[in-house]
Amino acid sequence: RRNMNSKPEKCYNPRDHTIPFTDKEDEFDCKARMSCGHVVTPMSLTKYCKYLLRKGESTFVCGQFGCNVEWPYVEVRKMALLTPEEMEYFETTMAVNAFKTHFDSKTCPGCKYSVTRKVESNLSVRCQMCTATKGRTYEFCWQCLREWKGPQPRTDRCDNEGCCNDALKTLRDCPYVNFEKVKGVTECPSIRACPTCGILVEHTGKQCKNITCRQCKVEFCFVCLKITTECRKAPKPDYYGPCSTGIAPRQTSIPVWQRN
């Protein structure tokens, strides 16, 4: 099948009995159900999963509102009808993203290789490869990804113009949200840093106050920023009730993930 620009579009073979199709019988509009129950086409699934990879994700989670089911790669590969070229791109990008996530890695602006830092509180990171190649100590800023300027160690910024912590800026400037179903919760920051791993998470205020982090998979209370098990130790715990400690203020630091 081709679109108006004569580019081939992927579509399911309606005779493939291994694919859980919806009830629609139009062979030119075949749709199938993922393991979570939501409907996709091979083109829509491919585009959505590529979007997740560009965001730095290494796993695929359903994007439908309120659905946090993770799709196995083997399911995505089959249901998206990935071509050999797409499979190579998916698998390579998944591996790179997973490495960056689990080993706190970033790309050195000098040699373009992945570098991990030993001291997570110091923004100045030395690249051993660039140091050997250039014949001098080469360090770059973990925050703005430019060659380091200024004294060190530093935890806030280097002396490069425009260097700032975008995550902290987002936490400082994000709008407030009112929880529709949680009693007494108004003007809660709409974006929080996960108290376990530090990744930014947004809440629309339309569901309960607890949310599961897509990175570390830990469930926490968006209102008081305690792990859900701790939040529910309060008298008369309620997913839709106020927290005993009230609404946590805007965060002014990003938690560092202490991996075992």
From TrEMBL:
GO molecular function: transferase activity; zinc ion binding
Coiled-coil zones: none
Record's keyword annotation contains Repressor: no
Keywords on record: Metal-binding, Repeat, Transferase, Ubl conjugation pathway, Zinc, Zinc-finger
InterPro entries: TRIAD_supradom
Presence of keyword Cell membrane: no
PROSITE patterns in UniProt: TRIAD (PS51873)
Pfam family, one: IBR_1
Domain named RING-type: residues: 13-247
Name by which UniProt lists this protein: Probable E3 ubiquitin-protein ligase RNF144A-A
Organism per entry: Cyprinodon variegatus (Sheepshead minnow)
